[in-house]
Model the fold of this input.
Amino acid sequence: MKPNKVIVIGSGPIKIAEAAEFDYSGSQALKALREEGITSVLVNPNIATVQTSYRMADRVYLLPITCEVLERIIEAEKPDGILMGFGGQTALTVGTELHDKGILETHGVSVLGTGIIGIKKALSRKEFKDAMHSVGIETPRSITSKSRDDAVISSRQMEYPLIVRASFNLGGRGSEVVYSEEELDSVLDKTFAQSAIGEVSVEEYLEGWKEIEYEVVRDSGGNCAVTACIENLDPMGIHTGESVAVTPAQTLDNTSYQAMRSIAIRVAEEIGLVGECNVQFALDPKSYRFYVIETNPRMSRSSALASKATGYPLAYVSAKLALGHRLYEIANSVSKATTACFEPSLDYITVKMPRWNMEKFENATERLGTEMKSIGEVMGIGRNLEEAMQKAVRMLDIGEPGIVGGKVYNAELSKREALRMLEERKPYWFLYAAKALREGASIGEVCKTTLIDPFFIGKLERIVRLYELHNANSGDLAFAESMKRLGFSDAQLGVRTSAAKFVKQMDTLAGEWPASTNYLYTTHDAQEDDVARRKGNNLLVLGAGVFRIGVSVEFDWSAISLLDSASKSFDSVSLLNCNPETVSTDWDTVSGLYFDELTEETILGICSKGNFGSVAAFAAGQIGNNLAHLLEKKGVRIFGPSSSSVEIAENRESFSHLLERLGIRQPEWSSASSRDGIKEFVKGVGFPVLIRPSHVLSGSSMKIANDWEELDAYINRSVSLSPDFPVTVSRYVREGVEAEMDCASDSENVLGILMHHVEEAGVHSGDSTLVTPFGHSKASADRMKEISLIIASELSLRGPFNIQFVIENGTPSVIEANIRASRSMPFSSKSVGINLIEHAVRGITGKYEWNGFREPDHASFAVKSPQFAWNQVKGVYPHLGPEMRSTGESAAFGRSFGDALVKSWLGVQPNKLPAKSVLVYGISNAAYLGEAASDFSKTLAVNTLEGASIGNLPQISQSKADSMLRSKKIDLVVTDGAMIDIDYNLRRRAAEMNVPLVLNGRLGAMLASQLNSRFTFEEMGEYWK
Amino acid sequence: MRVLASKESLLSGLHEPIGYKSSLVLDDGTLMGGIGFGADVHAEGELVFTTAMNGYPESLTDPSYKGQVLVISHPLVGNYGVPEITSRNGIVQNMESEGIKVSGLVVSELTSGSGWNSAKTLDSWLKENGIPGISGVDTRSLIKRIRNLGASSCAIIPGKGSKSTSAYRYDSINFAESVSPREHVVHDFGSRNNIVIVDFGVKHGILRSVSRLGYNIIRVPYNYTEKQILSFSPAGIVYSNGPGNPNLLSESAKTLGKVLENGIPTLSICLGHQLTVLSMGGRIRKMRSGHRAINKAVVDTSSGRSYITTHNHGYAAYAEDVPEDIERWFISPDDNVVEGIRGKNLLSVQFHPESGPGTADAEFIFKHFERMMRLEAK
Done:
């Protein structure tokens, strides 16, 4: 029977292994519900997502995804169905808990899609293995265990190396390859801590085997289709999230492919799949032998990738199947001529490459392994493998122009050194493989080192050989032009070619049927376009590309908001982006989707092929601003703030001059193009100082120096000082209150939303706890509003912008202004129930109906908290500073500040309210830590640490603290600053044991004082009233 | 023939300079240039495409492709090389016949990959078989052309080619003559019972699937009479796939009708299915561009179950082409082609339950056939 109201669980903050792919999957599920006339209730504290709006969902709860909270929502909403397969492992774990506690049954909520029994069968390593064996499906030799000692003893039946994995877990957390019993023993605690059901498996490590993934859809009548096969280039032992992956599989013959496909269907049948699942195989590269490794009975990162790679909308179809439809009753939304009961055929190649941000994590282990630590991914599409790979490399936005010709390729690196990088499994292995080949390594040597199929290494070698031939014949333009076919960019070749680019459709059927699809990519390996030039006045919106620290789903929200609101002003609006995780790369959301590179060459090509008169870049983060500048120079009309105003604001020197001229306060500053210039200035203002080049996003390559030594080190390492490239040096305000304002302007008038940070100014704004309405003095608020008006009219800003302030003694100074959509705009917008991007578009196309500054009314409090990846990134020291390290955010609204703060903080993993015991210690912000300790002491046992003790609390030693953490006798650690010499091991241990960490004294004090707030659990829109 | 310089051969995906310029000419005068591979000869045939993304050794050896130049939609072909052909009891185990059956091959990029069990590259295999190939063609645009114009004839011409149109008339050639055996062939599995396969160019995948049922297989020429067929006292009869226009095989259809009246369990596949429909007074029409893929659903109209199956047919019976009183067993949800009919002791499917290449989803059809034979034997 069709339900009337369905609750959909989201995946919470963006974290490693749970990113925007679940915004995409959830949005598709919500769309399917809306089509059926079913009321949807979405629970997700990730305010930056597209799904947490009324665009797709009927009812939205920005609340932590816990059993208790969901029970309250179920009581209030009385849904009759639940979808738990669209919010990653987070949703599935909570969903099974709701079932196990009888909550679903009590309230008459039926599980739609795959049943709980099947889900458990899939997620428990033991049950899965048993179920597979019972139907004769082979899995690697393994043992499962619920106790540490037993795991060690049982593992003696197998030979090392072995691989340890946790049940009910995400992103391979806690898993590792171990080479001895000693190593196994040392990692088990951590692995157990990562399992939601306290179960681990230890299995045979199939070194060098291929890892192949299939995506299966199955309806309640048992009809199946296997819609994609993904071939991971990296062998077993490298997490699939860390692998370069090619769709469709390239090196499987019919026998291998079909044997695994049939088993994938058997696995789906065995778990009673209704919807979609991903089945992973290990395949012997030298025979037809294979094993089933695992299945994810839900939408996964791989299934989102598979959807984008094939054009088959897995999440949408999966939701329809969960509602009882048969596969062949659902239309193929791409061809519109055929049904969803088929297996896509691709006449192109896609290559997914992961994006790491290891430079943000000092001390972190770089070696890739069984745990995922990449932050984002891109997908290159081409008519051949080389083209797809080289496009993907450029999409990564790591400054590499392709497989060859960049920093790594031209580095002083011998063959041996390059091979060593491969052996150490450094991120971006393909660059080192090309380098090794250039330095004379054979295909065989690279294959032996990487355990990657020679077919792919051969492709890299072809790129290297061609590039070297090109360098030896640089005058041969015809040759260079023909190389374009293999994905070489003009910049990479160092010549301007006139090779034609063609626009092709991704139509799921390899051209077999006429397709009206708008899902497009460009290629040089073709002779004809699939689509005709557009007519009229068209806009191309740029997406933000790959997710990095500092660029995440919030920009996707901006891009989608922009698509929605700009459509009135143009005949058509299309979008360009290259991130397979996102809602913006869902061809369903847009009239034209170009899945391609965000580079000048490609954009110009698309503009001329597609007849785009205007390009909007302001929703694309910093990459957009940089591109806007280049495109405007080439005569492209920019929809949004002019790039000259962006330029003034982003150039630290010109902006500082501007502020000076306008009489706006800023921390003391100086522009210096020499070492002496810097020293002179520093002598005047004293340490710490902030040094930064222009065009900065998320703190990269800006640096705080605390003393001469650090200053010298920075100058030597990262800056080439010259009059053309000066740096600005400013007094670094650490202690002040940080505030910021998200704005939209029509060049005279401003709509703005003011916010402040809980943490002091020294903590990067992206890692801070953000609060609105603004909670400090009215006088400083008034001054900030005034400043926003002055800057908007001075720069004639039409569109969105964000200004960051530091408030010292009640007086705000401007730290920086970003003339584009900001990271916080979905938060600020949703906190008051408006859309700043929509207002920005109104500002670009017309005038506001008010004069001066306007701030929407706040009917409630809103708080946003950062999500960190301390646990996943091995070795990194958990601490806050001017460098951004958080991967995502959670938010909540409340009737009081405490109401919003505590709920927001609880939305972040692994945060939990302390039940018994807290450890508080630290040196900086000691007064705040003291406040926190005394508030916690009212209800909890509070200890402090020898050597960094707070007040008169009982002191415990490092080793005592460590053993308490290991045995989970500490529920929360509150500290401040960085004391890497004192507590590195302690913070690491807390992270590995999933013990919540509060890394700032002010936040600790705020949380401690608000623990007893009255909590409200209202629907998002209620908080606007 | 001028051999390509190393630069050009690298660009065309060849590590060794072995290619040469070649052209593909369509009967509407379209000329597409590319790089030749395989045998350096002229070839002509009907131009058809498959959307199967792998399984090229199986496709190229499928006798149903006789007289056709095959375009593969997936842009990289040759990635895992070609294995040595293995046979057991006269049945090829890893391909669909003893040699390449297509007249020519068109790909976007030829690769010289080699899988763990590969014995040669695709290029050298084509050479061995005397079959030409052409790479560097925008196969997507070519497929769109075939889709819009309908199947047309073409020629692969080494060198720059000329716009001379090809005079190839696929529809009027009787291919059964060239792919059916002259005499009957026995595959003895030591059983007391025989299955007769009427061979219009049978895929060895069908022989493999039938051989698993445990009967002896007698493969007979397509023009054997009723009496000749019955002389083997078959427990079951299989009408095989094969190339060409079924409407040219009216004698065979007539014989088939007469044999059916004996009530012997019968399984018809592909061309066999078309002849079965004809024998019942139905109609078979040339399709615009045919079904050639391994990703196509068929729905069992009685159970509502769907299966992903392998198709390779340029002719078909649509819903209105099959006499009313005949059970439409399977239909294609995409275009209403009747993909299977059923009657007493008769199973007839347009798709390929033996796959090769493709899924094993419909392998159960052979089990049905076996059950029919068992029941009849009681």
About this structure: The longest strand of chain A covers residues 750-760.
